[in-house]
Design brief:
Length: about 325
Amino acid sequence: FLYLLYRIRIAIIPLILAIGIAYLLGPFVAWMSKKMKRGFAILIAYIIFTGFFFAIFFFTIPMIIDQFNIFITKLPLYIKNLTEMINNFIEKSAIVSAIESATNKEVLPLDSNAISTYVINSFNLTSSSIIQNATVFTRSFINIVITIIIGPLLGIYILKDSEKLKNLFIRVLPPRLKCQASNIIERINNVGGRYIRAQILVSIIVGILCTLILVILKVDFAVLLGFIAGILNLVPFLGPVLGAIPAALTALFISPLKALLVVLLFIAVQQLDNYVISPNIMKYQVGVHPAIIIFVLIAGGALLGPWGLLIAVPTTAVLQSVLKYYLLERKNIRSR
């Protein structure tokens, strides 16, 4: 089964995106459906969603391009500052002196101009690698286009026909299970939507906090790096680490102390997210106590690694909702 999933992974990613969009827009579509036909409600929801999505990219993409161009322009200066710091360390370090005495070889200082030339020339591709890189790029670009187009398209069908699919599934069940299955499916859908919206809210908060830290420390490209940190925070386990790397490297070009401060403050934000922000937002959205969320995250990470961190909270929320129905609400319904 896992091998089959791996072979059809190009189809699974758009499906995951479609389910996420359906959960995200579901409450708005349900509210609009009370005032108009569901098809028109879905159309309006998609117009608002795509408009918001493209508005973000309309403002962020030019900024990203400008800041990347500024980074390339300043790259030789960054490398010069970094090599000067390394050369000062080589000249004054007792450890380097001891190594030179033990090996009878002198540690030569770094040449910033040579390093800059090497880094800049490394962007030039040889003719043999152009075809290979073009093939990889084309394949990746096609996968991205398929995901961007097919994902929202599948989301339309899920939003439009979710009730029909649910009713079809319930219709084939024995009569004694129909009511229970309907209640459980409704609870799973409710928890899934709330979880996705909570994750997006957490990433926005983390991105804002990281941006404020970089602005206070006067690190270049603070908005861009904070935006990257917020987006990558959606990725479990590795996301916060990957988001901290570009910020720390950019700060390192200014000074090692500033890079250390960035790393420490990003770790503080990650801990704040793990033990304060996420548990409390998840408690409000999915109804799981913060202490239980912390426990299941630790347990899920220990048992299944990154996948355990990804599924720990939604699985716990679904189980809690199902148990609440069977142990409390179903008994109350029967007692009436």
